[in-house]
Design brief:
With 350 residues, the chain is α+β, with helices and mostly antiparallel strands. The chain folds into 3 domains: 116 residues, 2-Layer Sandwich (Beta-Lactamase); 75 residues; 149 residues, 2-Layer Sandwich (Heat Shock Protein 90), CATH 3.30.565. Helices cover 45% and strands 23% of the residues. Helix 6 packs parallel to helix 7. The longest helix has 45 residues. It starts with 11 loop residues before the first helix and ends with a helix. Keywords: ATP-binding, Kinase, Nucleotide-binding, Phosphoprotein, Transferase.
């Protein structure tokens, strides 16, 4: 770009930087006349480079830069009473779409102490803003779709649970009836789990609330006499990702169902405690009861569906499972240790 004859000699380096900049830049005098413009500015806004030097900002192009508020801010910046930082404007040009611009301006000390000069940087964020709007729309549409899916899943689970219970009432075999009731309990627990997760924000789940609601659902569907049996939740302030909470919730569901079915025969009173503690990436989940304890040896029950589900979920979480005597009762402890998993990974690599 051409420079005006009145430019101070020591401003030459600034002019060179402005002219060669790949970003749209304007070098302005304190009365907002253009001293120089970068070639990128002229290309971006369809302005003839030969027509720029010496013109006022408001005279550029077809007058689209004539913005009283912008001129006022630039004047205040030149006087030192204001700064233009990330100031947004809409540039409207005849026959073209409106461009969204972000402006930054500051005064320059180019050696001429008698004249204040401004450097105005322009960033065109039109396309970036359009992409952001599209992304926001997609996220919003996805949220609406997810909500609809969750609603349909909840309804389907309720229908399945109802069918299972009706089937349990009709069958003659006590064994078959027991299996159908077990299936009903599992479906109702999954329904409670799904309802809780659907309210979680940004894929994060606060476990104390989550396990509390899950235990209430289990109690409502499986405990006929709350004075005889109860479920207690002892959980710290841990928050986990949604996918982790799904696995933890299924583990809790299976172990609590197992305790309710086997730990308190003959109308025995008791309590089941769900406990979860974490420290950094390490955590421990335990399900304890004060029932009759876990039979061992020949009296131990065969591993069923619930056991297989728990073992698979624990493996998926890179955890370890341990069964111990609680005197009275039994405790199932699932633990995850980051250091232990790292050692195992290193051993496998070797």
């Amino acid at each position: 770009m051409l420079q005006t004859p009145t430019v101070h000699f020591e401003a030459a380096s600034t002019l060179a930087v402005v002219v060669s900049s790949i970003e749209p830049l304007l070098f302005l005098s304190d009365d907002l006349k253009v001293i120089a413009a970068s070639a990128s500015f002229c290309r971006a806004f369809d302005i003839d480079p030969a027509s720029v030097s010496g013109k006022r900002l408001s005279e550029l192009g077809a007058g689209e830069w004539a913005m009283p508020t912008l001129e006022s801010l630039l004047g205040a910046t030149a006087s030192g009473s204001a700064n233009i930082e990330a100031y947004e404007i809409d540039l409207k040009r005849p026959g073209q779409k409106t461009r969204q611009l972000v402006l930054n301006a500051r005064t320059l000390d180019d050696g001429d102490m008698d004249h204040i000069r401004l450097l105005l940087a322009i960033a065109d964020v039109t396309d970036a803003r359009a992409e952001a709007r599209i992304k926001d729309d997609l996220i919003r549409d996805r949220a609406v779709l997810l909500q609809e899916v969750q609603h349909r899943v909840a309804n389907s689970l309720q229908i399945i649970a109802s069918v299972l219970m009706q089937s349990a009432r009709r069958v003659q075999s006590e064994e078959a009836r027991g299996h159908l009731r077990d299936a009903h309990h599992r479906v109702m627990s999954i329904a409670a789990l799904q309802q809780q997760l659907s309210t979680s924000l940004e894929g994060k789940v606060e476990l104390r609330t989550y396990f509390t609601q899950l235990s209430r659902s289990l109690g409502a569907s499986m405990i006929a006499d709350p004075d005889r049996l109860s479920i207690k939740v002892k959980v710290d302030d841990s928050v986990v990702d949604g996918n982790v909470s799904v696995s933890l919730g299924l583990i809790v569901t299976e172990l609590v169902i197992n305790a309710l079915k086997h730990a308190f025969p003959d109308e025995r009173k008791g309590i089941i405690v769900i406990d979860y503690r974490s420290s950094g990436n390490d955590w421990t989940l335990s399900i304890a009861d004060n029932g009759i304890g876990m039979p061992i040896g020949n009296d131990a029950p065969n591993a069923g569906l619930g056991t297989g589900i728990v073992e698979a979920l624990v493996k998926n979480l890179n955890g370890e499972i341990e069964l111990s005597d609680a005197g009275p009762g039994a405790v199932v402890t699932i633990s995850h240790r980051e250091a232990a998993n790292l050692e195992n990974d290193l051993s496998s690599a070797v």
